[in-house]
């Protein structure tokens, strides 16, 4: 008898009243019945005789087909005129003038398979899906509760400020709701998948019951099981991670209200200058990186990443087909969009307007909402390599010629406004070599470039003077630095993916080594990008997986 158990299985209920526990099974109709409903069921006209057995004995009858007319007799003959199985009494009775043949053994095998499929879905798979749905709804409720709690805190704090402050809180409310929408989206998508699976299994159960009740031999012989598509229960490898809401108010000091990187200060009455009163807002490195999600792409290896907002990322990768397409995935691993490039893509980035920018050999292209346009034409004799958008809206492009010489151009719209090639002493900034370079602009205006040809990070100020070179030796690792990608964060830190040592180097804006970050389950980090929440998305050159991690938090 089915009963509640720790695996999430539930007691089977009567098919007629829908709420009482099953005690009996009508072999003729495959109806589960409680004691109270068995009388009503056995008075139905079709079949004329119902064979009812104890529910716990049902497995002993899976391999037998009982006659729909003589419920105590097993069928061993096929009436080919009626396409139904019949017993010896039927053969000498109503079907005596019909053509017949021995009932195929495969019929009983297929019939047993249908019964086993139904039982597996009813007693195991559907309860598991239902349990996962409960867990997912619980996560959604908890996450929603976190946002509701923060809304109440905001409302309480808001009453302490004057009328002009209402505009500030309106901005915070808008930001919070936008974050909430982005945060809940993957969980709601997962909930929809679970519910869809449950609905499809119920539909399959209905079709199978009709198939068994009709007992058409030809239809049962052509039955194809759909159970395999439900065996793998979809699991969302993502934990709720609500944003940090920081409230700080001390007498005589500025009142601070902060949601992620959006901050507002209310200063007390004071005489100028009041710079010393301003809080030193820091986003501190975590002692241990927290993996929030794993995005498994269909590719062999990741080349480059560019986060689009909070829960989406554009991927330049190596796959089973020609590597001329860029793909956009959400944090659940679902593919949202793709764009085919004209030639091999060397680098990609996002601009402040949400456009995807990617570099081909001779051009930099933009893509948004299905439309592709040329943004920048590369000078003759040079090819576009790594690319990034600066915080000012300008575009940094690494260029390489046939002599494997390198330089960096800074563009505003379509015009080159700066070139970085030599330092203040006329020495080359970037070592010649066949490997491409990747640029980033730091918060202080420095231009940082990862040069795989020299296995170093080269940083110059906005005027082109050399500030520092970082070669990884301060990290004291077993292997030399092998940098393929990097980012700069809101604190001016430079985070470098080290493929050789399976870690990330973190240095400050002056080139001082801070620490190495290891990401559990990730080897050979290559592509790396920061989303709008300040989370790191790091790709693997080993298996095409992308880890979404939290590596820092704002200090209280």
UniProtKB/TrEMBL annotation:
PROSITE patterns: ZF_BBOX. Residues 9-55, 62-103 form the B box-type domain. Keywords: Metal-binding, Zinc, Zinc-finger. InterPro entries: 6-blade_b-propeller_TolB-like, TRIM45/56/19-like, Znf_B-box. GO terms for molecular function: ubiquitin protein ligase activity; zinc ion binding. GO terms for biological process: protein monoubiquitination. This is B box-type domain-containing protein. It comes from Magallana gigas (Pacific oyster).
């Amino acid at each position: 008898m089915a009963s509640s158990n720790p695996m999430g299985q539930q007691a089977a209920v009567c098919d007629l009243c829908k709420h009482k526990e099953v005690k009996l099974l009508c072999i003729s109709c495959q109806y589960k019945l409680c004691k109270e409903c068995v009388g009503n069921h056995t008075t139905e006209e079709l079949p004329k005789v119902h064979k009812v057995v104890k529910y716990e004995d049902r497995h002993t009858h899976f391999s037998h087909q009982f006659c729909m007319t003589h419920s105590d007799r097993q069928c061993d003959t096929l009436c080919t005129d009626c396409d139904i199985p019949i017993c010896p009494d039927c053969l000498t009775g109503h079907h005596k003038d019909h053509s017949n043949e021995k009932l195929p053994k495969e019929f009983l095998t297929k019939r047993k398979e249908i019964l086993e499929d139904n039982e597996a879905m009813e007693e195991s798979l559907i309860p598991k899906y239902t349990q996962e749905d409960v867990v997912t709804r619980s996560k959604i409720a908890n996450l929603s509760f976190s946002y509701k709690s923060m809304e109440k805190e905001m409302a309480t704090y808001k009453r302490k400020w004057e009328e002009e402050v209402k505009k500030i809180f309106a901005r915070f409310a808008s930001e919070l709701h936008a974050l909430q929408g982005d945060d809940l989206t993957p969980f709601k998508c997962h909930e929809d998948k679970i519910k869809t699976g449950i609905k499809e299994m119920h539909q399959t159960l209905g079709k199978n019951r009709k198939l068994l009740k009709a007992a058409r031999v030809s239809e049962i012989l052509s039955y194809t099981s759909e159970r395999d598509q439900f065996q793998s229960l979809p699991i969302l490898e993502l934990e709720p991670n609500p944003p940090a809401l920081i409230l700080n108010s001390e007498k005589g000091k500025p009142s601070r209200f902060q949601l992620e990187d959006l901050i507002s200060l209310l200063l007390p009455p004071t005489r100028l200058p009041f710079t010393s009163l301003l809080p030193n807002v820091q986003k501190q490195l975590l002692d241990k990186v927290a993996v929030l999600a794993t995005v498994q792409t269909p590719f062999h290896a990741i080349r480059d990443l560019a986060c689009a907002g909070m829960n989406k990322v554009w991927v330049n990768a190596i796959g089973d087909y020609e590597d001329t397409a860029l793909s956009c995935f959400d944090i659940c691993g679902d593919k949202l969009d793709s764009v085919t490039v004209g030639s091999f893509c060397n680098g990609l980035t996002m601009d402040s307007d949400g456009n995807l920018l990617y570099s081909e050999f001779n051009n930099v292209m933009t893509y948004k909402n299905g439309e592709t346009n040329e943004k920048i034409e590369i000078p003759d004799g040079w090819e576009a390599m790594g690319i990034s958008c600066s915080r000012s809206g300008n575009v940094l492009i690494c260029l390489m010629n046939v002599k494997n010489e390198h330089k960096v151009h800074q563009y505003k719209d379509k015009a080159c406004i700066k070139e970085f090639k030599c330092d203040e002493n006329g020495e080359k900034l970037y070592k010649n070599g066949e490997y491409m370079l990747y640029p980033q602009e730091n918060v202080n205006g420095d231009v940082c470039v990862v040069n795989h040809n020299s296995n170093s990070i080269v940083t110059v100020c906005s005027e082109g003077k050399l500030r520092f070179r970082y070669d990884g030796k301060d990290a004291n690792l077993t292997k030399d630095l092998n940098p393929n990608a990097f980012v700069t964060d809101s604190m001016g830190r430079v985070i470098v993916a080290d493929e050789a040592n399976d870690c990330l180097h973190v240095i400050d804006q002056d080139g001082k080594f801070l620490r190495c970050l290891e990401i559990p389950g990730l080897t050979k980090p290559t592509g790396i990008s920061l989303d709008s929440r300040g989370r790191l998305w790091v790709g693997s050159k080993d298996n095409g997986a992308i880890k979404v991690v939290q590596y820092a938090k704002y200090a209280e």
